[in-house]
Amino acid sequence: MKFKYQARNKEGEMQAGVVDAANRDSAVNILSSHELFILKLEAAEKPHWYDRLSGYFSGVKRNDMVIFTRQLATLLEARLSLNRALSTLEEQTQNPTLKEAVFRISQDVDSGLAFSQALERQGEIFSPFLVSLVRSAEVTGNLDQVAKFIADFTEREATLVSKARSAMIYPMIVIALFLLVGGLMVAVVFPQIGPIFENSGVEMPLLSRVMIGSGTFLSQWWFLFLIGFVILGVMIADYIRTPEGKAFTDDLKVRMPLVRKVFLPVTITRFANAAAMLSKGGVPVAQAMEIVGETVDNVLYRDLLHEVSQDVRQGMALSDAIAKHPDYFPALVPQMLAVGETTGQLDEILLRISNFYGREADSVVNNLVELIQPVLMIGIGLMVGLLFASILMPLYKLTAAF
Question: What is the rounded distance in angstroms from the CA atom of residue 383 to the CA atom of residue 177?
């Protein structure tokens, strides 16, 4: 995707041109890496519908990043030079998007750019959190150790997200299968038995009339229903990808009681993990909060942590700034942070917070999986009972009439 820009360089000279990038954020990173102050940035052409459709199926998955970071850490621990390690990774990487990104990073490093700058130019793949850790490692000279930290962090992230999703996938599959079977019964079976009751002159209960009427409608207009369902699904998926849609879904994660039980401990764990690693890397607290906001992958937490960062810059303690948001951070978090600030062991306290809420996330997910099964069985049993009752009640009246 191409973006038109107007910018000034560090000498104050005006520059204008076109930059090729995956998205707007990536274009900003590329221009910033060339020490340009952006005045105007806009898309040179509107993305086509098929470009958006391809975006659903392309990209770098979390498991690809786990493999990449672990291989990078292993190669650097083996004392390979960064250039050699990147060349090796480019050969071994299977994901085409990541493979192209590694190739560009390798080219940038060979041309003299720092590793952190090369990663920043691929901002659509590599997060600000990772870039900041690499930048701090370049200053301290312990890139191999930081690469190991990043690999461990990425694996923990993948495990947390996988557990959270596993708690939600099972009920979604069961509900989807029930809706499919129920829809087939309503659309195929009910329209065939409707004429029997009409010819018998037996008055059907309201539930039966609703079911048979719905089945008749679906059997005649199923293709319109299917087209509408597909269009609605595409519209919802497209809306979720917009900033407004992402903010809406992120708000639901915080407000829905059942989802919140899984989402909150997972988010606190990710927050504490990232903050601890940045703190160990020597990143200032205020800057660390802004970077963590980008890694938590939630618009509400991103804005909230930006506000926390501003409060810290104005002299407020991190624990006090976090305590201002009790709906998003349990009371235990600011209390433990206050202990870390008092003892000067903030990074250690953050790791303890991460471990505590990590165990809580595991416990919640395991309990939900065990609780969801009987709840689903009861709910689906009631729905199946309604389906059969809509058939059995008129059958009982029909046999009673004779």
Answer: 13
CA 379/CA 381 separation, integer angstroms: 5
DSSP class per residue in 15-84: EEEEEE-SSHHHHHHHHHHTT-EEEEEEESSPPPHHHHHHHHH-S--HHHHHHHHHHHHHHHHTT--HHH
Tally Cβ neighbours within 10 Å of residue 382: 10
Tokens representing 38 are 């952006």
Instruction: Name the residue type at position 313.
Output: R
Residue pLDDT, tens place only, 86-135? 888 888 888 888 888 888 888 888 888 888 888 888 877 887 767 877 87
**Is a pLDDT exceeding 50 seen at residue 213?**
yes
CB 72 within 8 A of CB 146: no
Higher-pLDDT residue of 110, 165: 110
Q: What CA dihedral angle connects 166, 170, 171 and 172, to 10 degrees?
A: 90
pLDDT of residue 28: 74
H or E segment and range at residue 133: helix 128-140
How much is the pLDDT for 22? 60
What are the C-alpha distances in Å from 76 to residues 131, 136, 231, 382? 17, 16, 48, 58
Q: Tell me the C-alpha distance between 191 and 175, whole Å.
A: 24
- How would you classify the pairing of strands 14-20 and 37-43? unpaired
CA distance 359 to 370: 17
Joined together, the tokens standing for residue 278 give 């940045």
Q: What's the alpha-carbon Rg for the chain, to the nearest Å?
A: 28
Q: Is this structure's pTM higher than 0.90?
A: no
Q: If you write DSSP's letter for every residue of 197-216 in order, what string do you get?
A: HHHHTPPPPHHHHHHHHHHH
Q: At what angle do helices 257-280 and 285-295 cross, to 10 degrees?
A: 140
